[in-house]
Write a structure and sequence with these properties.
Pectate Lyase C-like; 2 strands; about 5% helix; globular
Length: about 120
């Protein structure tokens, strides 16, 4: 599935869990998706702007160029997620979980090298 606009369905209750899916260039703009799962999914260039992703599971997800802007990511699980870049200054990350390898994605805007 490519370029799906889930925000066009705000009037419906969204309760789903994705596993081994490709959702490239889809949009979840402004949605509340608490406790959902995106396990082992390709989420390349997916827009999560202004979404509430509290306690969402992104394990083994491929998040190349995914957009997180003013997104609530409290308690979200990014352990084992790949290529995730999130600006901690404009997103809520309290108690979110990342692996040591994922730290570079939190610091990428500062253009520092982690070795």
């Amino acid at each position: 599935m490519v370029r799906l606009k889930f925000e066009d369905r705000k009037d419906f209750l969204l309760d789903f869990n994705f596993r081994n899916c490709t959702l490239n260039r889809s949009s979840f703009y402004g949605l509340t998706l608490k406790n959902q799962s995106f396990l082992d999914c390709k989420l390349i260039e997916v827009d999560f702007t202004e979404a509430d992703l509290t306690n969402v599971n992104f394990q083994y997800g491929h998040l190349d160029r995914a957009i997180f802007s003013h997104t609530i990511l409290q308690k979200a699980d990014f352990t084992k997620a790949m290529n995730c870049a999130i600006d901690p200054e404009i997103n809520q990350l309290k108690n979110a979980r990342f692996s040591l390898e994922g730290l570079s994605g939190l610091l990428s805007k500062y253009q520092i090298k982690i070795e």
